[in-house]
Request: fold
Amino acid sequence: MAKKIVVLGTGGTVAGRAASRADNIGYVAGQVAVADLLAGVAPPAGVEVECEQVAQIDSKDMDSQTWRRLALRCAHWLAEPEVTGIVVTHGTDTMEETAFFLQSLLAPAKPVVLTGAMRPATSLAADGPANIADALRVAAAPGARGVVVVFAGGVHGARDVLKQHPYRIDPFVSADAGCVGYVEEGVVRQVRAWPEGGLDVADAALRAMERATPWPRVEIVLNHAGADGRIVSALVGDGVQGIVAAGTGNGTLSAGLEAALLGAQASGVRVVRASRCEQGRVISHGRGPFPDSGGLTAVKARIELILKLLAAAA
Reply:
């Protein structure tokens, strides 16, 4: 029986067009249908591919409604016995966030593989077709599971993946953890465990999404030289429900910013402390006034807090 992989398109650079084939930056993202992206990519032997256009956006514009649609479509297809895996074509700007969102919410026992491109589909040296081909191979790999990002031959776990370069065709790293594996000449070589586990309140959060419960507002505040906390006061006045503080170094905060965050927390706003450093983690000494992010970057800590607040509203 043939394996069935469903490819969900959301737009991004991989679906972008530019006026000139020599132009790799002046393109418009989300122009090419996912069916057309697949037309030039041969699936692995014994694999049937079905595609669906979930969205057609630049991933810098990713929002809660698109995430909701994507999560529900992933949940639908993962529940189909004949589907062995999912590939999501996606822009690179927020790919790490979407990957973490899907892993936290779905903790899939089947592979959900995000991929895309750093060059538009019209480029003389488009990288999208090779990335899509590699993603299909990972989605069809025996034993593959969880949400991963497949890009430039690397297989990155959803919790660890980071976009660290704005232009190179290999912009993603897996920070301290290292890659889950590599795709080499169409063969998947696994070097560590596939992602497992999700958020403990994921079921409640998914039920809230199914009922279209409004998403809570959670913002990120950066500590920097001269940070005085006035932005926190403005956010509280505007009804924010959660704040992730991206502190310097080991999550450190200026006196003014910490005081403002303490006031926000006292008023009922959930506050989580992360680090603005992209690698490493906040090492808690157990005496701080705010819970730390458990090793998550600020953008991923924001997603976790959103899902927790959403579940609490279910």
User: Anything to note?
Assistant: The radius of gyration is 20 Å. The first strand starts at residue 3 and ends at 11. The helical segments are 34-39, 64-78, 95-106, 128-139, 202-210, 230-237, 255-266, 298-312. The chain is about 30% helix and 25% strand.
